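Agenda item 2: zinc ion complex prediction
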Amino acid sequence: MDKALNKKDGIIYPIWEWMSNTKFIDKNSEERNFNTEPTCFICNNTLSIRPKGGSAKSENIHFWHNKHGTGCPTIEKNRLRYIGLKETYCDYSNSIIER
Ligand SMILES: [Zn+2]
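Presented output:
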């Protein structure tokens, strides 16, 4: 996830702004803590920033849900699968109609 909601103003900001805008970073914090928590605009849970796959390159940095069990559909394992749907056949007559 590369964007997060700022609950204080109700606006969704990109990750680069969360990391650089002094509006979000606590200037007195050595760990560069947020003075307002980034929030998922889908499930309303708090987010943190971390690199993907252990790489600290800026393009790999993203927001992640820092609590387990949020059920947020942005996390692949939480998405509903198409259980009960079966394979179907190719209906070539539809392609003929479109010509
Ligand atoms: Zn979420």
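Discussion summary: The mean pLDDT is 85.
Owner for follow-up: CH.
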